[in-house]
Specification:
Strand order of the largest sheet: 1-8-3-6
Number of helices: 0
Distance between the termini: 21 Å
Strand content: 35-45%
Order of helices and strands: EEEEEEEE
Number of strands: 8
Oligomer: single chain
Helix content: under 10%
Largest sheet: 4 strands, antiparallel
CATH class: Mainly Beta
Shape: globular
CATH architecture: Sandwich
Length: about 110
């Protein structure tokens, strides 16, 4: 039987722990800015932005665009998958963020 917390219907709620000392911050403006490297073993991150913004996940050269990237609403946490099983030979992951008018900050929490 699952040891996960349960909701009102007694169904398990999947929960991933926060990785110690792996909360990242990325300030953003009208120019795309890329996060520090996300640990290779991480498969899920939680993203939280102080302003509406656009994000992309990819390699060190990833850039976000206000016309083709994924939109995140401000003040809503999003759990995002970084892809399938982590391959040690795979490139490290980064999150790029951009906003077309108001500066803000993107918080990235690595999850275990």
């Amino acid at each position: 039987m699952s040891k996960q917390p349960r909701d009102d219907g007694n169904d398990p709620i999947p929960v991933l722990a926060l990785r110690p000392n792996r909360g990242l911050q990325v300030p953003f403006t009208a120019s795309s800015n890329t996060s520090p490297q996300i640990s290779n073993s991480v498969r899920v991150v939680t993203l939280f932005a102080t302003q509406d913004c656009f994000v992309e996940i990819g390699s060190a050269s990833v850039e976000a665009s206000t016309s083709t990237s994924h939109f995140l609403s401000a003040s809503i946490p999003y759990d995002i998958s970084l892809g399938a099983e982590t391959d040690p030979n795979q490139n490290s992951k980064y999150v790029a963020v951009v906003q077309d008018s108001t500066a803000g900050k993107l918080y990235i929490s690595e999850r275990d």
